Amino acid sequence: MPNHKSGEPDSAAKRRRNAAHGVSRGSVAGNSPAPKGRKKRPSQKALTLIPISLSAEIRPGDSLADALFPSARLRAGDILIVKHKIVSKSEGHIVDLDTIHPSDESITWAKQYALDARIIELALRESRSVIRRKNGVLITETHHGFLCANSGVDVSNVDGGRHAILLPEDPDRSAANLRRAIKQRTGLSIPVIITDSFGRPWREGLTEFAIGIAGMKALRDDRGRRDPDGYQLKASVEAIADELACAAGLVCGKLNRTPACIVRGFRYEPGAGTAQALLRPAAADLFR
């Protein structure tokens, strides 16, 4: 039976949708041909993950470069991974919960599930749209385009619940600013990735995601290369920045005052990468 919107058979339309779902934004899903004539990539050597601990709290207006670099010893080729909370704190994205006056809608929802209505109200304010609201879980799309619980609003590791931390206004810009400050202090052009912990559909537990990137490409496009058996890859676009964020999460943790990490030995692709390149456009999203 034909697809009434496109005039093509349903099976053909389905194949096109599935192909679009198999790759991510930034590789241009669906209508971008696989690059030809690519050489085999050099093998990846061992990686080193170096945690950066802080003894003092970051306050609004503090320089992250000044705070991090008494402890960090960077080399050319390193990548700096930074958890977003110290970025948000330094940029002043902190909200006193006593100043939040929840709407009737937020109060009703919060009472039903024994939640803090102020957090719900903040999450709605920080959202572009509400994706799901069920069983006490609020999944939103933030103004940045991230899909996550409560728009990323968080009260952990702040001051015991009196204030909430919001996501940076523009995490890519924050990463670029930190990268620039590092170069001024060290002379090194080091890629910077800012991360946050998100849940995932169909999977339990949290994992780290890249929400801000500067100095490297977020995706590695292996389409057109051949696997060891000679098969040419058709849809292999790897979310390198997210994978590096997860690796850093293993050494940063949640409770040990280690908000940053150096990744050493990874073969990244320099370039004007952004976290926005990791967001799948709604037209290719089969699950929203």
Uncertain ranges = 1-31
- Main sheet: strand order: 1-12-2-8-9
Sheet/helix structural class:
alpha+beta
Shape: globular
Number-wise, the strands total 12
How many individual helices? 7
Q: Provide the number of structural domains.
A: 2
| CATH H-tier superfamily of the largest domain | CofE-like
Helix content: 25-40%
CATH topology type of the largest domain: 60s Ribosomal Protein L30, Chain: A
Please, what is the average pLDDT? 84
| CATH architecture verdict of the largest domain | 2-Layer Sandwich
Oligomer type: single chain
Element-level helix/strand string: HEHEHEHHEEEEHEEEEHE
Alpha carbon gap, first and last residue: 25 Å
Structural commentary:
The structure is a single chain. By secondary structure, the protein is an alpha+beta fold. It has helices at residues 10-21, 64-68, 84-91, 104-113, 117-125, 171-186, 240-252; strands at residues 48-52, 79-83, 94-96, 127-134, 137-142, 147-149, 163-165, 192-200, 203-214, 220-221, 237-238, 260-264. Strands 1-12-2-8-9 form a five-stranded mixed beta sheet. It has a three-stranded antiparallel beta sheet with strand order 4-5-6, with helices on one face. α4 (104-113) packs across α5 (117-125). The longest helix is centred in the middle third of the chain and has 16 residues, at 171-186. The model is unreliable at 1-31 (pLDDT under 50).
Topology record:
Blueprint: H1 10-21, E1 48-52, H2 64-68, E2 79-83, H3 84-91, E3 94-96, H4 104-113, H5 117-125, E4 127-134, E5 137-142, E6 147-149, E7 163-165, H6 171-186, E8 192-200, E9 203-214, E10 220-221, E11 237-238, H7 240-252, E12 260-264
Parallel strand pairs: 2-8
Antiparallel strand pairs: 1-12, 2-12, 3-7, 4-5, 5-6, 8-9, 10-11
Helix pairs in contact: 4-5
